[in-house]
Amino acid sequence: MTSVSVGAGVVVGPVAGLQIGESRAYAVHDRQIAVFRLTDGSLRATDAVCPHRGGPLADGQFDLAKVVCPLHQFAFGLADGRCTSDGVGSVGVHRVEDRDGEIVLWVDSAP
């Protein structure tokens, strides 16, 4: 899907296309961003690539607070991107919202 700019945000798709408990990676400004639809219906977004070995975070298990990389089980906070393990680094966290049924992301163009 082609992204569309909305103000400073980018529409990446319909919220209805991302069921509760699902996540998906979207390309925004030449970056991969993982969007998570939590069990409470809210949305969260992080960089889609684990800094450890490039694992696909959108494929990881997640809850209201964290996502776990499917490759080596490092957990990253959805609020701040920090890893719970030392030495792994963190991931970027991005503003995301449901705007009139569309997923809108705000991502800096530079990684």
Share of β-strand residues:
35-45%
Please provide the ordered H/E string of secondary-structure elements: EEEEEEEEEE
> What name goes with the CATH superfamily?
Rieske [2Fe-2S] iron-sulphur domain
What characterizes the major β-sheet? 7 strands, antiparallel
Number of DSSP-assigned strands: 10
Our count of helices gives 0
Radius of gyration over all CA atoms, rounded: 13 Å
Structural class, please? Answer: mainly beta
User: Could you say which overall geometry the principal axes of the C-alpha atoms support?
Assistant: globular
Low-confidence blocks of residues = none
How far is the first residue's CA from the last residue's CA? 21 Å
Protein name: 2Fe-2S ferredoxin
Keywords: 2Fe-2S, Iron, Iron-sulfur, Metal-binding
InterPro entries: Rieske_2Fe-2S, Rieske_2Fe-2S_sf
Domain Rieske: 10-105
How does this model look, in words?
The structure is a single chain. This protein is mostly beta strands and 111 residues long. The protein has one domain: 3-layer Sandwich (Rieske Iron-sulfur Protein), CATH 2.102.10.10. Helices cover 0% and strands 42% of the residues. The strands form two sheets. A seven-stranded antiparallel beta sheet has the order 1-2-10-9-5-4-3, with no helix packed on it. Strands 6-7-8 form a three-stranded antiparallel beta sheet, with no helix packed on it. The chain is globular, with a radius of gyration of 13 Å. The mean pLDDT is 91. It holds the Pfam family Rieske.
Short account of what is shown:
This protein has 111 residues and is an all-beta fold. Helix content is 0%, strand content 42%.
